[in-house]
Amino acid sequence: MRKSAPGRVASAVVVAALAASLAACGSEASGGSGESGSSGAITVTDDTGVEITLDGPVDRIACLTMICVDALTEVGITPVAYREPLALDERYAGPDADMREITGGFGEENVEDVVLAAPDLVIGLAGAQDGLRDAVEEAAPLLLVEPTSWQESVDFLRLVGDLTGTEEVADEAADAFTERVEHLAEHRTDLVTLSMYGEPGSLGVDTVATPVGSLLAEVGEYPWDGGGVDDPFAAIAVEQIAALDPDVVFVQAFSASSDTEPLAERLATDPQWAALRAAQDDRVVEVEASVWATGRGTISLGIVLDTVEEELGLHA
Question: From which residue to which does the signal peptide run (predicted)?
Fold first, then answer.
């Protein structure tokens, strides 16, 4: 059964039912396969309020953001182009996937790479890649998304199913992930957790207005709401963490170097950090920054849950 959670992702998906019905009737009358019912126009309003119309389901999609790669992997489609190196991980498209790399800085991607991939649709991150719209749409429509909860990540997966004609596969994966979260929520812990990232002196936290933060709030105590600020990825000081004194802290070190010292070790010299319950109990867990910070989709959130289940003992 298809479940749906309200969210801003896929705030409006309208398949041209009349056209599809007429096409289906024509197909049945002529003895066709009946598949033409999925060939009607598809209209979607993205998270910036822009309405995009496709002639029908597409499978040539360029991904400016990892949630796009994540969702396409769930439905068995390889993107024609990718931006994040994580896309080449075997858990996603894989190292041998036939995809074009999109070069350039974040929010300043090389549009020529997108054009050369010849996509029918480009999916990017709202609030970061908005400025690319005019240039990208010379090649293909640009759909911008910005999930602020795990439910909206699930909604996006369903949207990708609608856009690619893989609704059944998308729904199955979406339902399975939702059921997993609901099951864990029934056995939630009273341990206080925190997901944070950055460098000493420049730390941030996943608030409850992020996919990871909202997921942690489902399975345990997650008191970080951002203090009323608009940015869901809020700045945080060690003093604020000490006030919460979490039982378990998941930390992500952001660095271009693979041999960077773990964030927890760099924070260990701070007396307030060392006094934390999590630090004293050796429950500061270094996690994959690329998955936790940029994944956003259900595969990535499933990997997050694997770690969370293990660390919180949620095996009921």
Answer: 1-26
